[in-house]
Amino acid sequence: MKKIFSAWLVIASLAAPSAAWAATAGYWRFEEGTNGGLIPAGADTVPDSSGNGNNMRTFDPTFTSATYSNVVSPVPLRSGLPNTLSLDFGPGGDDGGLNDDNYTDGKSINNQLFSAITVEVAFRMDSIGGFQTIMGKDGKPLASSPIPPFKLLVRGDDYPNAVPNQLFVEWIDGDSVDGSDDQQLASGQTVVPDTWYHVAVTIDAGTAALWVAGETGGYQKLDQITGDFAGPLGNVIVQSNTNWSVGRGMYNNGVTDWSNAHIDEVRISDSILSQNQFLFAAVPEPASMALSLFGLLGLTHAARRKAA
Ligand SMILES: [Ca+2]
Ligand SMILES: [Ca+2]
Ligand SMILES: [Ca+2]
Predict the structure, then answer these.
(1) How far away, in angstroms, is 263 Cα from ligand 3 center?
(2) What pTM was estimated for this model as a whole?
(3) How many whole angstroms from 69 Cα to the centroid of ligand 2?
(4) Which of 174, 210, 211, 305 has the fewest C-beta atoms lying within 10 Å of its C-beta?
(5) Quick one: which ligand is closest to 100's CA?
(6) Which residues of 107-132 are buried (b: 16+ CB within 10 A; e: fewer)?
C-alpha cells in the first residue's frame, strides 16, 4: 500500500511542472454584484479574480452597464466554485439600448504578449440577429483590414459555408503585415437563443482550435486550423496596447456589434489548456462515458492480473 502511495506521489510530482506553467492572466466571474443591479461608476468595478489586477469598468452606468443576473449556466465549474451571477447585456436595466460593455481600461493585460493563449467564455443569447460580439480586443492593427486584434461573435449572416448565425472567432496573428494574417475559426452550427454555450479558443504558434460545450455533453472541437501565427516576439495575437472588452467588439476601429446576451465566466490563460482543464465541468454523453468506464474496467482488470 505504501509503495503504491509513493508511486502516485512520484507521478503527481512529475505532472506538477506542466500544471505550474499554466497561468491565468485574467478571470472575470461577475460574482461581485447583486441580482438586478448595475455595475457602479468608475474604475476597477468589475474585479479580475486572477489576482493580476486586470479589473474592468463600464463606460457610464447610466447607459452602458450590463445588469447582474441570477440566470447562470446549468453546467458547474470544474473548480467547484459556486457560480451565482452572470451579466445580462443589451436592452433593459439602465436603458433600452443595445449599448452595454465592460473593458480592461489601461490594464497590464492589454500589453501582455501571449506565445500561447486560451480564451474562455460562457454565453446565452437573448436574441439572435445581426452581428453580436461576446468579447474581443479593441483596435485596428492592419491598415488594409477593418478587423480588430480579436473577436468572438455570433455572426449576423451565413458565412462561412452557408450556415446561419455561427459562432465565429477572428483574430490578427502575431506576424501581422497584411490581410492574410486575419485568422478565422467557425463553429459550423447555428447558435440558438436561451441556451448556454461554453467556449474555449486555444491558439499557439502553429495551431488554433475552437471548443464548445452545450448544456449537456462534453467540450467538442468544432474547428481547427494550422498556420504560422507567431510574431517576432513569439506573440500569437498582434501586439496592440488596447482593451479587452465584453459585450461588444470593434470594426474599423469603432465600437460596435453589441450583444443581447447573458455572458459569464470570462477567462484568459497564457497557455493552451487541455480539455480536462477547461472552465466548466462539462460531462460527456452517456455513450462515451460508458466507453471510458469500459476502458477503466479493462485497466483495473489488467492491473489485477499483474498483481496476481
Ligand atoms: Ca459568474
Ligand atoms: Ca444600456
Ligand atoms: Ca439581454
Answers:
(1) 9
(2) 0.87
(3) 14
(4) 305
(5) 2
(6) bebbebebbbbbbbbbbbbbebeebb
